[in-house]
Amino acid sequence: MKFEGQNSAAASAPSDHVLESRLLALKSYGRHSYASLTDAQGNYLQVAGGGVTCMVESFNVSTSTRLRAFHDKPSPVFPDGTVLAFGAGELRLKSDEWFHASAVVEIFLCFRHGRGYPDTVHWRPAPKI
To answer: This protein's superkingdom (predicted)?
Structure first.
């Protein structure tokens, strides 16, 4: 596994602690606003934003499919179409695509350890960029 983040040194085989601390340090503004975790086959998870404004996507190499995570509780604060602005640009999200950083940590740890994702996390095709 390789963990990479905006303005951060890449970490090969990062520990759970390193993943957690770096993911929790992300902000949707400033020097650290996105990161990714890639396995040996090239599949990856990526997160943009930070704190209570995170978006998570996955990419599967064998199917060339990029999926966006969503959950069971749409945000009353961020309606469909709200823009997430971060270091690599802007994305429009649906109200159920906003994640708290603590949920992002759990998703990344599941990916790292090859476990199933939490029952509250679902996936749909990511919008074309």
So the answer is: Bacteria
Distance (Å, whole) CA 32 – CA 112: 21
Instruction: Tell me the pLDDT tens digit for each residue of 53-73.
Output: 999 999 999 999 999 999 999
Residue 41's contacts (CB-CB under 8 Å, 6 or more residues apart) are: 61, 62
Distance CA 40, CA 31 (A): 27
Residues 106 and 51: their CA atoms lie apart, in Å, by 14
pLDDT digits (tens, 9 = 90+) for 103-121: 999 999 999 999 999 999 9
